[in-house]
Amino acid sequence: MLRFANKVKNAVIFFHRWMGVVFCSLFLLWFASGMFMMYCDYPLVSEADRLNHSPELNPAAMRLSPQDAYAILQMDMPPAKARIEMFDGRPVYRFDNGFEESLVYADDGQRLNDFTPEMTLRIASAWAGKSPAAAKMEEKTAEDQWTVSEEFDELRPLRKYSWPDGQEVYVSTVTGAVVQYTTRASRLGAYFGPIPHWLYFTALRKRQSVWSRCVIWASGLGTVAALLGIAIGAWTYSPSKIYLPAGKNSSMPYLGSKRWHMSLGLIFGPLACTWAFSGMLSMDPFPRLQHGEPDLGGAQLTQALRASPVPLAAFDAFPPREALLRIGANFRAKELELTSFMGEPCYIATSAPNQTLVIPVVGQPKAEFDRESIVDLIRRVVLPHKLAEVRFVTQYEAYYLDRHDTLPLPVIFVSLDDTERSMYYIDPKTAQVIESYNSHSRWNRWLYHGLHSINIPWLYRNRPAWDIVVLAMLIGGTALCVTSLMLAWRVVTRTL
Known about the structure:
By secondary structure, this protein is an alpha+beta fold. It is built from 16 helices and 15 strands. Helix 1 crosses helix 16 and helix 9 packs across helix 16.
């Protein structure tokens, strides 16, 4: 029996040694880049960026009603979404039918079909706050490092405008919108953080299925390598100090870098294992196990709260211009969304992220929709299920939190008594579902976000506690990988 156990142990050591040779550099890359990932995001144009770069709406220039503007498009079906914003200095309707977005100027009814280089240059220059004369333009029909993901496929060709100070603005020739923006600092941070951490190299990332399989297999095998190391360390460690590596009793049979590797492995090996495993979960290798489907999906609930399509005719009696004049000059609206709540048409004016105002067609502007009405509607929609819990959330909690404080507060929390124990967080300012969970996604929240981002409410609320804890873990993991690299070099050179 002892002989068999030794054979098993030797086999485990053999596989761990050679898997360590293969994966030690990758683990070092992951841990080191993780430190940059704490503070350096991959460049993207967020909703907040779009609003921050948008000018204030000009009601004086709005002459066309929503229904008349949509009639110019000569479409059979009403739009699923509609909003007004400023575009190239003029108010414009953006109608979305679920397949494509169409633009019609709100001042003269001109339909926007073509976005000329002169127009996209003005848009990019306004975004960057730079002179158009100093810009350098490139037509981008293929992927580059900053537009490599599939979300840009339907937006190409792109026009990239660069300025001497390092700003780069990408404008879509399909929508006329700024779809990517980078600076020297954001690109440098991405090269040290997200790009190596996600293996987001252009040549690999543009092949979506290959990249996905590569990350899944690399993190999956890395998890196995770390697990084998933990098993060896636990198997070898002797609490009774039976080893004599330097002529005195010790719990470990090694000296030098091997001893350091075993010590660090016993401390940070579980971290390396869980981080590699949770990193694999980010690629959804088990979609049915990770997400499942609530008995009532978040999209269905949003549809019940804010019905689609948009009832454009209902806004004829109270056009956008009058809605903006009603809210006054104190609220600097940058976007006006046309929607309805419980069948009643209304506008939602937005001035900044999470700063909105509800403007009913009938009634006075208000900060949010009626909370009790939202809860009553949900109670009717979820039948035959019942609401197991209803409460108002005023601070981030275990299933609703954000390290960057971008998720709206307060929100309404409701949970159902269905088999999935579905739960939802609803923003009363917009009557939209912000987060939803079922029995599967709750596991995923802890196994992925919890293990990988150390996504714990107390640490987030008491920063820099989160920074100290995560940095200490990453530094320890990096030290473990350095010892792995040293041992791997010995193995390779000895073998060669």
